[in-house]
Amino acid sequence: AQTVTQSQPEMSVQEAETVTLSCTYDTSESDYYLFWYKQPPSRQMILVIRQEAYKQQNATENRFSVNFQKAAKSFSLKISDSQLGDAAMYFCAYYSGAGSYQLTFGKGTKLSVIP
Amino acid sequence: EAQVTQNPRYLITVTGKKLTVTCSQNMNHEYMSWYRQDPGLGLRQIYYSMNVEVTDKGDVPEGYKVSRKEKRNFPLILESPSPNQTSLYFCASRRGGVTGELFFGEGSRLTVL
Are A49 and A66 in contact (CB under 8 A)? Predict the structure, then answer.
């Protein structure tokens, strides 16, 4: 079974600074998708960014970007110009392109933003 | 508005009293799923459904039942709730066979005393 590991249970960042959240995963498949979801205090799960494994180019969405290292099975999230509204739990997730139909989540990283 | 709707959002109940958490989506998605979220454990899948009348167990199915009689609805049933089922529950849906992005409901906070 695939596993997703987020090694940083908690992190903090100064407002306007940059922070990187780590995620590694274990898989034997070549076709898959990776996601970062944000869960603010409202509890809503919000998709932040998505990466297709077959794409070499790293995905970006405004202030959010990823560093996807397929050989290393690493998928880190970089948040630039951090804002107070970025404070949330962040979950990394893996989805196989074939067979399992499951979105497997890491245990999450709680990000605090310091004014 | 495209959405996944769960009810109730909050519930306190007692051990052994059967309850149902409803889930409905208006996006005509084939795939629906239930997750539970616990501190330090992330989200774990309980059951999923690829389409009407097709359901399968996820990672933590014990103590839960589901049914998928209609495409839009996927209720989660706790026949005899126990305190270890106290958790935050999410229903989610997506189009079948594509990129895997899930659309989540707003969550249901369940406390079993």
Answer: yes
pLDDT digits (tens, 9 = 90+) for A75-103: 999 999 999 999 999 999 998 866 666 78
Residues of A with CB under 8 A from a CB of B: 9, 33, 35, 42-45, 47, 50, 52, 91, 95-97, 101-108
Give me the pLDDT at residue B88, please: 97
- Given an 8 Å threshold on Cβ–Cβ distance, is A43 in contact with B106? yes
How far apart, in whole angstroms, are the C-alpha atoms of residue A88 and residue A111? 5
One-letter amino acid at B23 equals: C
Shortest Cα–Cα distance, A64 to chain B (Å): 17
Average pLDDT, chain A: 92
**Strand A64-69 and strand A60-61: pairing?**
antiparallel
